[in-house]
Amino acid sequence: MKKIERRFWAINQYREEENWLNDMSAAGWQLVKAGIMKYEFESGPRNEYTYRLELLEKEASSEESQNYINFLEEAGIEKVGECNNWVYLRRKSSEGPFEPANKALNELTHAIRIQSSFEKIRANFIILFAVVVIASFICNFFDYSAPWFDFMKGFFEGMSFALAVVFALTSSIFKGFRRDVERIAREMALHE
Amino acid sequence: MEQKQENIALTEAVYYILLTLREPLHGYGIMQETERMSSGRLRLSAGTLYGALSSMLEKGWIEAMSGEAEGRKKEYIITYTGEQVLKAEFSRLKELVANGQAVLESK
Question: Which chain A residue has the Cα nearest residue B26?
């Protein structure tokens, strides 16, 4: 029996996403395919597989990532889906626990990778923000009125406002990542 | 970038990987051997192992054996530099144990 679920998750919720997949597995639904917001499950024995999400350094289709995925396959870990740099992995639960030996290091790697991909997006936003702010400033500089000109002015102003809001909202997520990294770093000073 | 490698403590994973690679082994073999040596205590994850192997290849502590047949799993072996690093770590660990004994087990 098959079942399709649609679901959205934000980049900082990957652990919740992982838990959800493992809860599904516990309920007898095994993820067999995953893409952007779309999940395909097949019914199977409860807890047959343990699932994990991993953020790769490069896109899953790149050669480096492919080498890594092949390596995982040799160790009995199967890739069931991908979404940008994220891969959905699973391992038969009967083969032992499926978790990183060095949990802190693994978490730190993830936090740093998430942060750097996030930073790239934010850098693009800053450029866009600067462009619309300058554009709306230039528009206000001219004492001119025409429907198309007013529309353009309004558009730039609206965009500046919208981007400022996006920026403010993402700031707190960004701070959360920073706190994560610092917490893990402190822990790593005590434990391996 | 090059630090004096001898003075830096290895992670447990790296120490065991180097120990197991005195004989050629492929990835999964390293995981099994590490688990056996540590009586099941240390379970390397494939991700940790992959990262460690890549870094150690880069540093020249281990090398990949040229695979004969197509599709064969890649096997690794320790290099001379790797041996030196492993021995240095072994001395460091002995020092830790000796000092622990001197303090904790003295009457």
Answer: A74
